[in-house]
Design a protein that fits this description.
Layout lengths: L22 E7 L6 H10 L5 H14 L1 E8 H18 L4 E6 L1
Antiparallel strand pairs: 1-2, 1-3
């Protein structure tokens, strides 16, 4: 017994594996009703894109049908998808955002 009253045991090397949380990309999908200006505003406000980045992503979505807005941990991605849907519905647009595991 040591002076503190506890036995000092031999330290074992334990390697705890610290795994990165899974990450998800948030995608916007093109539709025939949501305006380009609204999509740019969403990209600037929700995803913190610069006007140039937002315009480039919006054009990619428009021409390709889908575009990536960013990659986030699951809870942040879910919140961003929910925010996009809430703002789009409030503005009367059917804009669709989804998340996909990276």
């Amino acid at each position: 017994m040591s002076k503190t009253g506890f036995d000092i045991k031999k330290k074992e090397k334990v390697q705890d594996e610290v795994k990165e949380p899974p990450r998800f990309k948030v995608l916007l999908h093109n539709d025939d009703y949501t305006t380009m200006d609204f999509v740019v505003k969403i990209l600037e406000d929700v995803f913190h894109k610069t006007p140039a980045e937002a315009t480039a992503i919006m054009l990619h979505v428009h021409h390709r049908g889908v575009g990536e807005c960013g990659v986030y941990p699951a809870e942040i991605a879910e919140t961003k998808v929910d925010t996009v849907h809430a703002r789009a519905r409030a503005a009367g647009f059917p804009l669709l955002a989804t998340m996909e595991k990276v």
